[in-house]
Amino acid sequence: MTTREETMKYFNKTLLAAAIGLASTQTLAAGFQLNSHSATGVGRAISGDAVIADNASVLSRNPAAMALFDNTALSLGVTYADIDVSVKDVCKAGTPICFGSDTDAAEDKIIPNFYYINPINDKWAFGVAAFSNFGTGTDPGALANNAVTLPGLGTIPAPVDLLGNTEVITMNLNASLSYRVNEQLSLGAGVDVIYGQGTLTRKGNLPFGPNGEMVPVSLVNVDADGWALGGILGAVYEFNADHRLGVSYRFSPEFKASGDVQTLVPQAQAYANFDEIVIPLPDIFQVAGFHQLTEKFALHYTAQLTSWGDFKEITLENGTLGQTSIPSSQLKHYAWDDSWLFSIGGTYQLSDAWTLRAGYMHDQGVVDEISSISIPDSDRNWYTLGASYALSANATLDLGVALVRGEDTQVLEQSAIIGDVIAHTRSNAVYYSLQYNYKY
C-alpha cells in the first residue's frame, strides 16, 4: 500500500486521463437499444413488428409496410419502464477492500410514441412518427463516498471515476414514403431526425484537502444535446393475404452532442471545457415474418442485428483549458460485438372485441472484452403478454406487458484512482405499455 504522499502524487498524474476517459466510458450507456416502440410490439416481444401492420406503429420498423394500409391510421402510445439495476460488491480487485452495493442504481422511464400513416392513392403512402431507439439511465453514485479506512494504512477512496449519474435520452422523428410495386412487392424509405440529450456527473470524496484530507470533488460534469440525420429503407413481400415477409435497414448517424463538458485538471486547479461529444450510433437490420395459420391464430417472428461492432470510439472535440486549446482525440477504444435478437410470438382472435398476444425474445448483450459498472449489460430474455380491445369498428386500445430478465455479470474495470475494480451487476425490467389506435 502506498503512503499518503505517494497516493496524492499518483492522483495528480492520472486524474486528467481518468476524467476525460469518463466522457467516453459513461456515454456508452447510449448503446442500450430500446425495443418498446408500441404496446402491440411489447405484447408480442416485437415479433413480426416490421410486417404485421395491424396499426400505424409498424412505421417504426418498416416504412414499406405502409403500403398494406387502405385507410388513414393513427397510433398514440406510452410505455412505462420499471427498471431494476443492481451493482453489488464493488471491491478493489485482489483485496478485501470493498465499497458496498447499490440495489437501486437506475431510474424508471416513461417512453412516448406517435405514428400517423396516410395512403395517398393505391400506389403511394406517407407517414410521420416520433419514438425512441436508444436511451438509458443509471446512477450507482451512492457508493462514491464510501471510502474505506484501514488501521495504519490510511483511507482508500471509492472509485469515484466509475460511479455516478449517467442519463441519455434520444427521440427519433421520422418521415417516410412507401410505394407498391405490384401485388406482391412494396418498397419504402424514410428520413430520421434524431434528437439526443445526455447528463453525466462523477463526484465524491477524494484526498485532495490539506495533508491529503478527504474533500468533495467533482471530476466530470456534462450536460449536452444535439441533432443528427439518419434514414431507413424497407421492403415487404406478400406471398398471399395470409403470408408475408418484411425487411428493413436503418442507417444511424455519427451523433454530435454540444453543450457543457467539464473535466477536472488537478495540476491546473481548473476544468478543461469541451464543446462536443461525438458518438457513433449503430445501424439496425431486421427481418420479420407473419403467417395466418388459421382463421383465429397467427404466428410471427423477427431477427434483428444491431451493428455495435461499428461502435469503436468516442471523441471529445473543441476543448480548452484557460487559453490553451485541447485538440480532438480518441478517448477510448471499445471492443463491442454486433448484437442479434430473435423473437417469436402468436396472435389469437378471441372474439370480435378481444385479440390476445404473447411472445418470447432472446436479446444478446453487446459488451465483450471491455465491461463497465455503469453498463450492466448481458444477454436478456423477454417474456411478454398483450391484448387489444375494440372500442368501436375503427378504434382499439392495446395493452402490453414485458418481463425482461438479464444475467448476473462480473465486471472488471480499471479505475485511475485505485486500480482494477471488480463488481457484480444485473439489469432487469418490466415494461407496461398502453396504446390507442384509430383507422379513419
Automatic annotation (TrEMBL):
Keywords: Cell outer membrane, Membrane, Signal, Transmembrane, Transmembrane beta strand. Residues 1-29 form the signal peptide. Gene3D superfamilies: Outer membrane protein transport protein (OMPP1/FadL/TodX). It is found in: Cell outer membrane. It holds the Pfam family Toluene_X. GO terms for molecular function: long-chain fatty acid transporting porin activity. It is a multi-pass membrane protein. Its main location: membrane. GO terms for cellular component: cell outer membrane. Belongs to the OmpP1/FadL family. This is Membrane protein involved in aromatic hydrocarbon degradation.
